[in-house]
Amino acid sequence: MIGSEIVGALQTIVSRTQDITKEPVVVTVGQFESGVRNNIIPDSARLVGTIRSFDDAMRTDVHARVKKIAEGIAASHGAQAEVRLELGYPVTSNDPALTEAMRPTLERVAPGMVIEARKVTGAEDFSFYARKVPGLFVFLGVTPEAECANADSNHSPRFKIDESALPTGARAMAQMAADWLFANAG
Question: How far apart are CA 10 and CA 66, in angstroms?
């Protein structure tokens, strides 16, 4: 019961404490493990989830609220909650100057096909690199055109790839590297 109460209360973080008109944020409990038999009251529960946000300060605030809510609800029932939060992957953001500098290169390689992607809440380890040096994360459209409307994500076992897009991706990467080196040659 305590774990269930915690799950319900965590859902109020987004709806009652965050300005989702500024940036979206998601708090999800994706795993709830408890008990060993159907007729024995469990003595513990394990909740596992994810927090997604495009804003670092918002994510930090949500983490603090998760800890406070879980510990507070557990304490109110005479129980104890051990909350372990990992920051996980930071937001992947393109460097504005590098993006602007490489846009003409991308347009040359793939005329009329360069668009600014919408925000995606997926996690990407590239974000660690882009925090150290200017970075540019580029999506290469590899979904077969006829399946774009109903395509499965790249983490799905039903993901399909149109490999004919790969040469364009290789050309884009090579040309961006060459153009950047030429523009920054000492």
Answer: 6
Tell me if 121 is assigned to some domain. yes
Convert the pLDDT of each residue in 4-32 to its tens digit.
999 999 999 999 999 999 999 999 999 99
Specify whether 89 is catalytic.
yes
Residue 84 lies in a domain: no
Range of the domain at 65: 2-76
163 given a catalytic annotation: yes
Catalytic option among 23, 89, 100, 147: 89
Q: Which of 86, 116, 145, 163 is flagged as catalytic? A: 163
Query: pTM (2 decimals)?
Result: 0.73
What distance in Å separates the CA atoms of residue 134 and residue 138, rounded to the nearest whole number? 13
Question: What is the C-alpha separation between 38 and 41, in angstroms, rounded?
Answer: 8
